[in-house]
Amino acid sequence: MTILSFFSRASRSFNGYPACSKLLVLCTLSSGGLVAYSESQTDVSNTSVEINAKDCKKRRVVVLGTGWAGISFLKDVDVSAYDVQVISPRNYFAFTPLLPSVTCGTVEARSIVEPVRNIIKKRNGEIKFFEAECIKIDAANKKILCRSTFDNNLVGNEEFSLEYDYLVIAVGAQVNTFNTPGVVENCHFLKEVEDAQKIRRSVIDCFEKAVLPGLSEEEQRINLHFVIVGGGPTGVEFAAELHDYVQEDLVNLYPTVKDLVKITVIQSGDHILNMFDERISSFAEQKFSRDGIEVQTGCRVISVSDKEITMKLKSKEEICSIPHGLVVWSTGVETRPVVKDFMGQIGQGSRRVLATDEWLRVKGCADVYALGDCATINQRKVMEDIAAIFKAADKDNSGALTVKEFQDVVDDILERYPQVEHYLKSKHLSDVTDLLKDPEGNARDEVDIGGFKLALSHVDSQMKNLPATAQVAAQQGAYLSKCFNHRQQCEDNPEGPRRFKGSGRHQFHPFRYKHLGQFAPLGGEQTAAELPGDWVSIGHSTQWLWYSVYASKQVSWRTRVLVVSDWTRRFIFGRDSSRI
């Protein structure tokens, strides 16, 4: 059998194969450390909606976006119960955590994207997809206005509208420039696949320009000065990828300028990776120092021109400028214009991010949901409902709450207000009833309303917004699809916590984010990771864990095979420096 016929047969075998269950275990031993990772995913065919679609017209669900949140929702929602339609200006899903790898050719762009139509084809073709951009949400009339994104002169209308019964907004966010002059015109971003491809071409341009005859050494140094603004995970990973690309591949191709390359990371805070554990942040800074990557902390960029970047040193209140060959801007995200306009319609115009409740429902707008980077959950405070909680728990209306009465509502409190559990962990309290103890730590038989308020007065200090990560978006999409699938069932038998203000129970359990850990590749086949249970793992073994997790998380077997083959190709042949 020839190699070509083998891969042809393998392609037919994998095509449309349902990833019903996956189990991936990696055990690596490095410096006495053992790391294991496992994942299991249930088959979406087990989900069901108890609604007879034949007896009633399907309600239309319009999904905006094909990112992590949108695709996660589409993969699990029961299409036999809803008329699902998808709007997105991109007809593919991109595995965004690997974008830094695309910038240097470690992974090819097409290896991390999966066509949307391939994904919805697995749902028996009952999902309709339209490649267009939503430019207006008409909340009053439950309608959206869309515009096609094709540049050629094809016939037909460019704009069209769609009505919806339910709207799922999952459009993500755009790069936040903080209105810094010159950023849009002179910086590269790293948010989309096209951004990574553009950076890859520009890096090669810098080297090719530097080796042209007639340039002085100073001009060569400027062309080969790569500046990354932002010391978060994306900026740090790109700096590490670029360093590996230069040291492992480009120095051999451009030996005359190998000593003139410089990489600088500019961070406004005191440390890079400040959202990670302090040990990881410290290790990253030390490794970058050893690798020759300059890290400038406490610097705020105030303008960027085509030749230099101007910044203010916070410690000295001085303004300085440095020349550059290429600048990558990676400083966070902000709300897209279509979402900002929608926020103005529903009374959220003064907010920076679209607000939802704990069930991902947009506040101030019925039947509209928002997931992922475009929204934030506005968690209700315990102190806003403290009187209602006390009244619900005080069954005998005695004006005092016993420990037994408090225990009867504890489960509902913990589910409705997750900050209570976070507070208990931060104070190392083993049981929620420990909150009712007196200031000296002695147990009390009962407390009045004043003592109850005092016991829970500091709980809301543990409220935190969820990070804008792929992990959060994917979990939100899976959660919302489950709510849609059980909507009819939960209308008759609510499954959520008790309504402390009002009667009955909430229809669904509120969304709870489960942190599964996060990675920070640092180059040189070393990665740092925060794992569940407050574990920190750093080194070569964690790099292999990173390979395993990212391979298993691919959306299809096709992309999984392509990504692994790209990694293998890089180990054997190095990265491709062609400018195409």
UniProtKB/TrEMBL annotation:
<dbReference type="GO" id="GO:0005743">
    <property type="term" value="C:mitochondrial inner membrane"/>
</dbReference>
<keyword id="KW-0106">Calcium</keyword>
<dbReference type="InterPro" id="IPR023753">
    <property type="entry name" value="FAD/NAD-binding_dom"/>
</dbReference>
<dbReference type="InterPro" id="IPR002048">
    <property type="entry name" value="EF_hand_dom"/>
</dbReference>
<dbReference type="InterPro" id="IPR036188">
    <property type="entry name" value="FAD/NAD-bd_sf"/>
</dbReference>
<dbReference type="InterPro" id="IPR054585">
    <property type="entry name" value="NDH2-like_C"/>
</dbReference>
<keyword id="KW-0479">Metal-binding</keyword>
<dbReference type="InterPro" id="IPR045024">
    <property type="entry name" value="NDH-2"/>
</dbReference>
<dbReference type="GO" id="GO:0005777">
    <property type="term" value="C:peroxisome"/>
</dbReference>
<dbReference type="InterPro" id="IPR011992">
    <property type="entry name" value="EF-hand-dom_pair"/>
</dbReference>
<comment type="similarity">
    <text>Belongs to the NADH dehydrogenase family.</text>
</comment>
<keyword id="KW-0809">Transit peptide</keyword>
<keyword id="KW-0285">Flavoprotein</keyword>
<keyword id="KW-0576">Peroxisome</keyword>
<keyword id="KW-0496">Mitochondrion</keyword>
<dbReference type="InterPro" id="IPR018247">
    <property type="entry name" value="EF_Hand_1_Ca_BS"/>
</dbReference>
<keyword id="KW-0520">NAD</keyword>
<dbReference type="GO" id="GO:0005509">
    <property type="term" value="F:calcium ion binding"/>
</dbReference>
<feature type="domain" description="EF-hand">
    <location>
        <begin position="381"/>
        <end position="416"/>
    </location>
</feature>
<keyword id="KW-0274">FAD</keyword>
<keyword id="KW-0521">NADP</keyword>
<protein>
    <recommendedName>
        <fullName>NADH:ubiquinone reductase (non-electrogenic)</fullName>
        <ecNumber>1.6.5.9</ecNumber>
    </recommendedName>
</protein>
<keyword id="KW-0999">Mitochondrion inner membrane</keyword>
<keyword id="KW-0472">Membrane</keyword>
<keyword id="KW-0560">Oxidoreductase</keyword>
<dbReference type="Pfam" id="PF07992">
    <property type="entry name" value="Pyr_redox_2"/>
</dbReference>
<dbReference type="Pfam" id="PF22366">
    <property type="entry name" value="NDH2_C"/>
</dbReference>
<dbReference type="GO" id="GO:0050136">
    <property type="term" value="F:NADH dehydrogenase (quinone) (non-electrogenic) activity"/>
</dbReference>
